[in-house]
Amino acid sequence: MSLIGSIFKNQSPWGSSGPTGGSGNGSGSRREPPNIDELIRNIQNKINRFMPGGKSGGGKPIVLGLIILLVIWVLSGLYRVLPDEQGVVLRFGKFVNTTQPGLNYHLPFPVERVLKPKVTKVNRIDVGFRGASDSGRSSGVGEVPEESLMLTGDENIVDINYSVFWVIKDAGKFLFNIQSPVETVKATSETAMREVIAKSEIQSILTEGRSNIEVEVQEITQSILDEYGSGIQITQVQTQKADPPSQVIDAFRDVQAARADKERAKNEAEAYANDVIPRARGDAEKILQEAEAYKKEVVATAEGEASRFLAIYGEYKNAKQVTQERMFLETMEKVLADIDKVIIDKESGSGVVPYLPLPEIKKKSGS
Predict the structure, then answer these.
(1) Is-contact 119 84, C-beta < 8 A?
(2) What is the pTM of this model?
(3) Which CATH superfamily is domain 123-244 in?
(4) pLDDT tens column, 345-364
(5) Which residues contact 220 (CB under 8 A, 6 or more apart)?
(6) Would you say 155 and 199 are in contact if contact means Cβ atoms under 8 Å apart?
(7) Closest alpha carbon to 145 in 126, 128, 164, 125
């Protein structure tokens, strides 16, 4: 630049300070442009001054210039790929390979050139609705019924809006295997969503089944894109809204309220059953245990009585008269224990002798 600047210093290509010459005020005669051959000769003379050997060898400047141009052309193949990019090398317009972030080299243009798409940027596609920036509105969300209305497995219609988030996984496949990546992702995700919704019931879609639907749609969409060799990675499918169509949403809410009342009544009945049944089982167990205790008591008493009888019977066989007398006396003692007693002496002949009622006297003294 200093060499060329020194040639044209204080001189325009037309040999003056301006295209009209003079002092620049528009006055004076117009000058003729300089001779091109003379201009080229001046440039060569300037270059020769910086070459070894002075003005000798008129071909040396040309060779040096060619060498400099060759070096510049070779060095033009150096390029840098940023951390959020991936280099895609094209050789005469044909995809060759991809390069990772850092300083890399390719054959200079026009042999090879490099494309550097952003591979870490998360892209978003909305299906069933358009945001303010997408629809051109200043605010609000625009609904797209032809995308959001879907038929469920139990022959109901659901109005579902969702967003698909994706990144570039393989820049080479992304640039050359699919023509319209955005439309491809959108169409593929919509196909997957309709497939999943067609297998699900509306109640599950509107309540606890959303997370499962999102995961299944992501897996199906990713498998289709992999079959296409799209080089796209689906990172997330996020459901924004899942409602019945606006025309029947009031009736559907009434149905939902009725189902909620049904569930509440069912839960109350189960709570009552959980309270009554354990209590009844406890009472039944108590009765069974009491009956078992009574059974054991009766059996033990009977066994004791039988053992006692056998013991007495053994003594009876050994001394019948004594045993009979003892048994008679014990029995009479029990029988006469609580009654008034009268003793009649048959041998004295004096008649009836009253017996002193000692129990009655004891009772009176006690009172």
Answers:
(1) yes
(2) 0.50
(3) Band 7 domain (3.30.479.30)
(4) 566 555 555 555 556 666 66
(5) 192, 195, 196
(6) no
(7) 128
